[in-house]
Amino acid sequence: VNLVERALQFFDRLVVAVAYNPNKASLFSVEERLDMIRIALKNDPRVTAASFDGLLVEFVEKQGANVIVRGLRALSDFEYEFQMTLMNRKLNRKVDTIFLMTGFKWFYTSSKIIKEAASLGGSVRGLVPDVVHQRLKEKFPLYRNVS
Questions:
Q1: Is the pLDDT of residue 31 over 90?
Q2: pTM above 0.85, yes or no
Q3: Every domain of the chain and the residues it spans
Q4: Angle subtended by helix axes 30-40 and 130-139, to nearest 10
Q5: The predicted structure's pLDDT at residue 55
Q6: In terms of CATH, what superfamily is 2-107?
Q7: 66: closest CA among 74, 56, 75, 81?
């Protein structure tokens, strides 16, 4: 949410892209993730949430956009993102990538850490939007009693 809010300072319209990835075991389905994004962003008319499969650069072009906004947390993120940016640039020279540093509060936060803490009953409130906090309660029995 923080990254989207900050990116809106530079762009009039954003599309939050959620990839179908059959090789990744996600806690939430693509549809659930889209729903949580819409709720967390309070259905901001400047933001659309959409799913895609295939290449991100093709999805971006179909949306009529030419920029991918990505968040960076740590140096390890940069190496991976740099490689992806170079490949995306090779696949479609019309699409550029812009990086925004993650807010300090979320610098060491990842979906893996959030899921692990919640599955063991640890509170992640304040690190995730309220809608995600509630949905985690539905997924993890130990998290149901976390306020």
A1: yes
A2: yes
A3: 2-107, 109-147
A4: 150
A5: 96
A6: HUPs (3.40.50.620)
A7: 56
- List Cβ neighbours of 4 (8 Å cut-off, separation of 6 or more): 14, 16, 41, 47
Contact call for residues 96 and 56 (beta carbons, < 8 A):
no
Q: What is the DSSP string of 41-77?
A: TTT-TTEEEEEE-S-HHHHHHHTT--EEEEEE-SHHH
User: Which of 43, 63, 41, 42 is closest to 52 using CA atoms?
Assistant: 63
Q: Are strands 67-72 and 47-52 parallel, antiparallel or unpaired?
A: unpaired
Alpha-carbon gap, residue 147 to 144, rounded angstroms? 8
* CB-CB contact of 53 with 59 (8 Å): no
What does the alpha-carbon distance between residue 115 and residue 140 come to, in Å, rounded to a whole number?
9
